[in-house]
C-alpha cells in the first residue's frame, strides 16, 4: 500500500533488543519479498552506529527513526507509511522505545491508518501500551511483562503451539510470546500481508516443523 507495489516493513530496534526476535522477523520477511527497514530508536540520532542486543549481538540499522519522514493523517503522501510496524522485545530495548516520544508517534500513526498492521513480541506490547494505542485489544506477551499489560489489554495466557500468535482483528495487531515463537509470528505477518501461498513457500524450505 505504502511504497507503490512494494510491501514494506519497519522493524524498530534499540540497545537491549532481543536479537532473535529482530533478526528472525527480518529474515523471514525478506524471504517473502518484503522490503524491510531497520530503524534505530536509541536516543542518539547517529544512523551509522550499531545497536547492542540483549545477548551482545550487534546490528547495524539502516537508519535512525528520526531520519524517516513521520506520516501524518493530513499528509496526502501515503508512501511514508509501512505495511507493518514491528516491535521486538528484550526488556531494555522495549524500555527505551516505551520512553521515546518519537516511537509513540510512529506507533500511533500506524495504528490509526486503516490497512496497516502492528506486530509486537515478548516485551514489545509494553511499547504499544506506552504509546496509548489498542487499549482493550487481545494480546499476549512474555510472561515476565504480563502484569504490566493485563489491566490495559485483554490479555491472553492460553496460547501455545501453532496458536501462539494472537490476532486482534479490530486493532489489526499481532502479538506473540518470545524468541521461540518469533518464527510463527513472522510467518503470520507474511500470511497477512502476502497471502497463505507465499507464507507456505517461505516456510517449506526453512524445514520449519
From TrEMBL:
Its EC number is 4.2.1.130. This is D-lactate dehydratase. The lineage of its organism: Eukaryota, Fungi, Fungi incertae sedis, Mucoromycota, Mortierellomycotina. It catalyses: methylglyoxal + H2O = (R)-lactate + H(+). It is an enzyme of class 4 (lyase). PANTHER family: PARKINSON DISEASE PROTEIN 7 HOMOLOG, PROTEIN/NUCLEIC ACID DEGLYCASE DJ-1-RELATED. The gene is PARK7. SUPFAM superfamilies: Class I glutamine amidotransferase-like. Residues 8-192 form the DJ-1/PfpI domain. It comes from Linnemannia gamsii.
Amino acid at each position: 500500500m505504502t511504497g507503490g507495489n512494494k510491501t514494506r516493513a519497519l522493524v524498530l530496534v534499540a540497545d537491549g533488543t532481543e536479537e532473535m526476535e529482530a533478526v528472525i522477523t527480518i529474515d523471514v520477511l525478506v524471504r517473502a519479498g518484503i522490503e524491510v527497514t531497520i530503524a534505530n530508536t536509541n536516543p542518539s540520532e547517529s544512523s551509522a552506529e550499531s545497536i547492542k542486543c540483549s545477548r551482545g549481538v550487534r546490528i547495524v540499522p539502516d537508519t535512525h527513526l528520526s531520519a524517516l519522514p513521520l506520516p501524518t493523517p493530513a499528509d496526502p503522501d501515503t508512501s511514508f507509511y509501512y505495511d507493518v510496524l514491528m516491535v521486538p522485545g528484550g526488556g531494555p530495548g522495549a524500555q527505551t522505545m516505551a520512553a521515546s516520544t518519537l516511537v509513540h508517534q510512529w506507533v500511533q500513526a500506524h495504528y490509526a491508518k486503516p490497512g496497516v498492521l502492528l506486530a509486537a513480541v515478548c516485551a514489545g506490547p509494553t511499547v504499544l501500551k506506552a504509546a496509548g494505542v489498542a487499549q482493550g485489544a487481545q494480546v499476549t506477551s512474555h510472561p515476565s511483562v504480563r502484569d504490566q499489560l493485563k489491566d490495559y489489554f485483554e490479555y491472553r495466557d492460553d496460547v501455545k503451539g501453532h496458536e501462539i500468535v494472537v490476532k486482534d482483528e479490530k486493532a489489526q495487531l499481532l502479538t506473540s510470546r518470545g524468541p521461540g515463537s518469533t518464527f510463527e509470528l513472522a510467518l503470520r505477518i507474511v500470511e497477512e500481508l502476502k497471502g497463505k501461498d507465499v507464507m507456505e513457500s517461505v516456510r517449506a524450505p526453512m524445514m520449519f516443523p
